[in-house]
Amino acid sequence: MKKIIAIILVIVLLFGGLISTGILNFSKKTQEPITQSSPENVAVEEPPFKKEGELIFTKNQQKISIEIADNDQETTQGLMYRRAMPDSCGMLFIFPNSEPRTFWMKNTYIPLDILFLDEAKKIITIQANRIPFSEEQIPSYENAKYVLEVNAGYCQRKDIQKGDGVKW
Asked: Is residue 43 included in any domain, yes or no?
């Protein structure tokens, strides 16, 4: 009788160990994305770039294609989960009013230059080379009605500076 109990105990322990290590998995798998914010755990489909306009830097006539975020859903999504963006593209955020703004880089794979613009479409702050996945608050320091995100280093490569204007 002791031998039978010992054998059953060994089988139960062995079976339990296989389940706890994940070798045996009887749980139902789901297709829901993981909601943690670390890059290796995000299971969200990469949104495609949608060209919705063209922006021109007036100082040097540099043109980029822009995707426009002008509602709460698009503003919240921004460039999150995108793994790359052509240097000739950017995202323009249009807000209904002018006020101090803060952005962050949560779930954003691409290092960015973030340009804050006033109501006259003049660059008031450039936050260059922002670090992917950072939740640090990135401030405008002044009232901003528009925000433009481009690839990190774009402003330096194209000589874009505070005080420059844009049009679209």
From this structure: no
What CATH number does residue 120 fall under? 2.60.120.1140
Q: Is residue 35 part of a domain?
A: no
For the whole model, what pTM was predicted? 0.74
Question: Token pair of 35, please?
Answer: 């909601």
Measure the CA–CA gap between 102 and 96, rounded to whole angstroms: 15
Q: Beta strand pairing status for 123-130 and 138-151?
A: unpaired
Output the tens digit of pLDDT for each of the chain's 168 residues.
666 655 665 565 555 554 444 444 444 333 333 333 445 554 678 888 999 999 999 999 999 999 999 999 999 999 999 999 999 999 999 999 999 999 999 999 999 999 999 999 999 999 999 999 999 999 999 999 999 999 999 999 999 999 999 999
Nearest 10 degrees: CA dihedral of 28, 38, 42, 51?
A: 170
Tally Cβ neighbours within 10 Å of residue 149: 27
Has residue 154 been placed in a domain? yes
CB 56, CB 167: distance < 8 Å: yes
The total number of structural domains in the chain stands at 2
